[in-house]
Amino acid sequence: MALTIGxxxxxxxxxxxxxxxxxxxxxxxxxxxxxSLYRRYPxxxxxxxxxxxxxxxxxxxxxEIRELLSLRAAPKARxxxxxxRADTQAQGHPGEDPCAAGDASSVETAGLxxxxxxxxxxxxxxxxxxx
Length: 131
Known about the structure:
Elements: H1 5-12, H2 16-24, H3 44-57, H4 62-73, H5 79-92, H6 98-101, H7 104-120
Helix pairs in contact: 1-3, 4-5, 5-7
């Protein structure tokens, strides 16, 4: 089932303009349009936008997130390759100073979650028609 931009934004808890921005930056594939020219996003877009937002909160740049997403979409990329790339990027971006925040476990858990998501979740190839 295809979703409108408003439904994707609401489900991913972002503004419509954020979704358009992600599309312009190549983080979300340009969706097909309906006859009335409305964007028709696949349901997987919600999960992708949530991943981008989560990675941003951990300090990953949009360029780094785009690299992770491109690896995840690559048909020949292995989970281990993607995980290694995410680990390397996460080491360079530990997010907030856990000592200053007094919450090392939540920062570490969040970092592990992004690496797990990057390693084990492949985005559908946007060139393949969605049903």
